[in-house]
Model the fold of this input.
Amino acid sequence: MSLVARYLERNGIPTMVMGAAKDIVEHAGVPRFLFSDFPLGNSCGRPHEPDTQRFTLDLALKVFESAVGPRTTVQSPLRWAEDGDWKLDYNNLARMSPQEVAKRRAEFDKVKQVARGQRQKAGVG
Amino acid sequence: MSDTASFAPDHDAPIEYMRRTRDYYLALGYDNPYRWAHYVDAPFRPLGKPLKDSTLALITTAAPYQPDKGDQGPGAPYNAAAKYYTVYSGDTSVDHDTRISHIGYDRKHTTASDSNTWFPLRLMREFAAAGRFKLAKRFHGAPTNRSQRVTLDTDAPEILARCRQDQVDAALLVPT
Done:
């Protein structure tokens, strides 16, 4: 998605990215970015909380209008939870048993097979 | 008493997804690590006019719900069959059922039960009605392709062309 933002921007359409994967978006380098320090899947606020969603979109528009140069990142002040323990879970091997890792390996083999078939069907493999 | 007592715990910082993902797939036995897009510089085009006078397009990575493609949530396991490989567009004046089961979102801490957290179309309609911007007549879906070449050579130019057709002045991109 960062690549699309860069492409549009280079071709005359200013862009604003709302996301939750700070390192990935900043590694690519985008013009303007509102970062929500939330689990992936919640770029636009907390689930079932219209107020936080409204706050997040409003902030994105303000960043869009006020950014003075590329790689502008603003971090939303909203918190997902009181503590940050949820951040230790995502694909974190240190929190998985060997059995869990083996199970995920088997699942991933299956997923890869499905994706390969899809790409071939779509002619992009 | 040291001043450091008021510091936040070290782990309470933005997750290093690239490092976490690399380590994870190495442990699963895949030693061909994904290379994330990386540039030193970034383009910048100032807004040509205030947002309230600009036509704003929503670009999403969410997929349209496809009943024949298996469990797409809420709470679905990763579903590669729900991926899509060409840009799609939708009419912004009506609601759309979009899902993210084809994306590696945080399945432990979120269940994808509220599409407004990844597809803010309804809220954008509300903001447009309040005069914050003009909503473009179509939104666009960007394939989450592992191939960055396809993204750069095919998908991004296609999204640009569709934005130009709709006389879009600015774009809001929401990756998941």
Summary: Residues 148-165 of chain B form the longest helix (18 residues). DSSP finds three helices and seven strands in chain B. The longest strand of chain B covers residues 55-60.
